[in-house]
Amino acid sequence: MAKELKLSPSYLLIGSELYIENIVKNFIKNVFCADATSASFGNTSTTATIGASCNLCIECKKVDRKMHHNIIWLEPEAQYTLSDLEPIFKSVVFALEDTKHFFFVISKAQQLSQFCANSLLKLMEEPPRGYHFILTAQTKERILPTILSRCIIQNYNTESNADSVFFKYFNSFNEPDFQGFSQAIQGSKIQESELMSLIDQIYFFWMEKLKILIQENNVDQAILIQNILDLMNKARAENIMPGSGKIFLRNLYMQFIMLLQIP
Ligand SMILES: [Zn+2]
User: Fold this and answer.
1) Ligand 1 centroid vs 36 CA: distance in angstroms?
2) Torsion angle of the four alpha carbons 124, 200, 18, 22, in this order, in degrees rounded to the nearest 10
3) Overall domain count for the chain
4) Same domain as 117, residue 56
5) Does the pTM exceed 0.70?
6) In a shared domain, residues 114 and 189
7) Can you tell me the distance from the alpha carbon of 18 to that of 22, in angstroms, rounded to the nearest whole number?
8) Ligand 1 centroid distance, CA of 30 (Å)
9) Distance 34 CA to ligand 1 centre (A)
10) Which domain does 210 fall in, by range?
11) For the chain (length 263 residues), average pLDDT per consecutive 10?
12) How far, in Å, from the CA of 145 to the mean position of ligand 1?
């Protein structure tokens, strides 16, 4: 599908493995899915565009299975070796047509030795048109400075962010904790961008749960989770007015609780 996209040559996404994997998949789906209208890892915020791809078409499914012909997805068991990286060098031959894209996902980028990293640096900096690198890691600490300097870094680690304070209220079927939530929200200075990141986090959490429940044939809970996902998708699409983040979040929590209480 022809789409005008301005993508950088190299990204480094930091965060927990499963969460980042979903972000990467969603991002690439948004590039290849004919239904999607945009693809970005967000601009100033740390959010990714979600819900834009259809998740149903053959392109989306191939990305989900990591079997798309325009992706090479590397997942090393230990340190990377040069032969692990060989598929990359073999693929990058000519510049691609304007609207074509090819992705190299290098997971666990902390396992790139200086030697392996050096072999990639030039390519990461200036790949032929259409090729993109997406590196992932759980933390930034053990990533080589030469790699860091060549990537656009998106940090999805939220321990210190306001959004992580609220995540726990949205991640179980347990009795709602109104009092805890109210107190948290009173003392919070949650930003609109953090809200989006929180919604992403909730969305991916329940999406993973849903996959497991479907495997277990647990229909009742699967329907409930589908409703939660719909709620988050709707929230994601809303335009949050500056300064109205707290009200928005309170409403979202109320709606979430109401879903849980439907027998
Ligand atoms: Zn699709």
Assistant:
1) 7
2) -60
3) 2
4) yes
5) no
6) no
7) 6
8) 8
9) 6
10) 162-261
11) 68 88 89 74 41 82 95 94 95 88 96 94 93 93 90 74 76 86 86 78 83 83 91 88 89 94 72
12) 36
Give the whole-angstrom CA distance, residue 175 versus residue 148.
43
| Beta-strand pair 152-155/131-137 | unpaired
Q: Is 1 within a domain?
A: no
Domain boundary among 155, 180, 200: 155
> Does one domain contain both 32 and 116?
yes
How many residues belong to the chain?
A: 263
Question: What does DSSP assign to residue 106?
Answer: E
User: Separation of 73 CA from ligand 1 center, angstroms?
Assistant: 19
Q: How many angstroms from the chain centroid is the CA of residue 40?
A: 10
CA neighbours closer than 13 Å in the CB half-sphere of residue 220: 4
Residue burial 232-242, b: 16+ Cβ < 10 Å; e: rest:
beebbeeebee
Does 131 share its domain with 177?
no
* Token pair of 48 as six digits: 């990714």
Contact 121, 150 (CB under 8 A): yes
Whether 33 is covered by a domain: the verdict is: yes
